[in-house]
Specification:
- By secondary structure, the protein is α+β, with helices and mostly antiparallel strands.
- The protein has two domains: about 5-110, Nuclear Transport Factor 2, Chain: A, CATH 3.10.450.50; about 125-240, Nuclear Transport Factor 2, Chain: A (Roll).
- It has four helices and ten strands.
- The protein is globular and about 50 Å long.
């Protein structure tokens, strides 16, 4: 594991100690916060962590990847209740200067395919194919945004597709059936804009903006690619709070 990956795992673990030791990883003069429930800078982060009852938080980072100046992590949290989260950190001059994240309440029990939001492979492979795999996911998300849904089957190897979304079953057929069921309940799943694509080897994270139900939402989708096709998918969907409830002015993205 690279030094930056180790630092991110260690930084997230400091949440269990109320943030004690976090400042060694962060540039306190240039830290930009995109979690809209937390105030600006390191003072905002410290204030948020101070609200945790001592000894109440638990953090287990399951996956961590690096792409240039970015490190992104997939973590099992328990603070003010169990949550699954993706965190993205941007580095400058060896220290973290910017943070984005997406959090979702942990569901009770597995999804229709028997999977949790976190299980499955954790180590990247095919490191020489990072850019190729990022381009694949970028095209897929852009096709979704443009409504070119007839192209989607081409991104998958038939029905051999493992799904970790808590509402959906495995396979392209499970994805289609699940989205149809949501639509019948009046739940919109709409992607409007792709903001960021990061990857390491056969793992690619796409950060998008759209609508889930009636709420403006952030979509963080993690894909595992195998032989040029999407083989596995994890995600976290979080509603974006209205502007008057946001605690910093940096925006979700």
């Amino acid at each position: 594991m690279s030094r930056r990956k180790q630092d991110v795992v260690s930084l997230l673990k400091t949440i269990e100690r109320g943030g004690e030791g976090a400042l060694q990883f962060v540039n306190p003069d240039r830290y930009i916060q995109h979690n809209l429930a937390i105030g600006e800078g390191v003072s905002g982060l410290a204030a948020a962590l101070a609200q945790l009852p001592p000894g109440s938080a638990r953090v287990n980072t399951v996956r961590v990847f690096e792409d240039g100046d970015y490190v992104f992590a997939h973590t099992d949290y328990d603070f003010f209740g169990p949550k699954i989260g993706f965190d993205i950190f941007r580095y400058e001059d060896g220290r973290i200067v910017e943070h984005w994240d997406n959090l979702q309440e942990t569901p009770k029990g597995p999804n229709p395919g028997g999977h949790t939001m976190l299980d499955g492979p954790t180590e990247p492979a095919d490191l020489d194919k990072t850019e190729e795999n990022k381009a694949l996911i970028r095209r897929q998300i852009e096709d979704i945004i443009a409504g070119r849904l007839d192209r989607l089957p081409g991104y998958f190897d038939g029905d051999a597709y493992i799904q970790h979304n808590p509402l959906l079953a495995d396979g392209l057929s499970g994805l289609g059936a699940g989205l149809k069921a949501l639509a019948e309940k009046g739940v919109r799943v709409k992607y409007d804009r792709l903001h960021l694509v990061l990857g390491e080897g056969n793992f690619v994270l796409a950060v998008s903006e759209g609508i889930f139900g009636e709420a403006p939402s952030a979509y963080y989708d993690l894909y595992r690619i195998e032989n040029g096709k999407i083989a596995e998918h994890w995600d976290v969907i979080e509603a974006i709070p209205p502007k008057e409830e946001q605690k910093n002015g940096n925006g979700k993205f």
